[in-house]
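User:
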Amino acid sequence: MSEKGSVFQKGGGGTNYEQYVQSAFLTTLIIRGNAPGIPANEIIEVAFQTTNRGYETDDLLVVAKSNIGIHRLLIQIKHNITFSLKDVTFKEVNKAFWKDYNNPSIFDKSKDRLLIIKSGLTIHDRNHLKTLLNWAKTHATASDFISEVNRIKAKKEQLEVLRECLKEANNNVALSDNEIWEYLKC
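Assistant: Predicted structure:
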């Protein structure tokens, strides 16, 4: 047994954080609340550790019902994750997301969403990654999105991180701008 690791790690901090987030969604289910990132809805199911259902993204599944239909949120919960090619956990999460995203029997690209929940966003996460994801949702085409991103060096660099990570998840086959834009919208 390794003696390495922080007090947080040895004390189950990551597990405790995951359970805290899961409890919040379970409470929201009980009070008939809404899931984030979906039009007016009500959570109708919460499931933990869902590999037995065929999901690669396994920390939390939230199912919600809206006027549009049924939506699934596939959620990975990480106390701390860095959105960088150097972060092995980020790569693993993205690979699981990519597999689920491309599995039409468990993921509807028009209604379902992929979420990473972490304890707090860094300034870089807020200013660049979050903005990038918001731009993907608000731009009408991939070319409009890429044009907007290319105007700002830091946004372009963050997109390149995501592009490279997705290439790795896609068996080292590069994705088109349209494929990346469609994925980031989810």
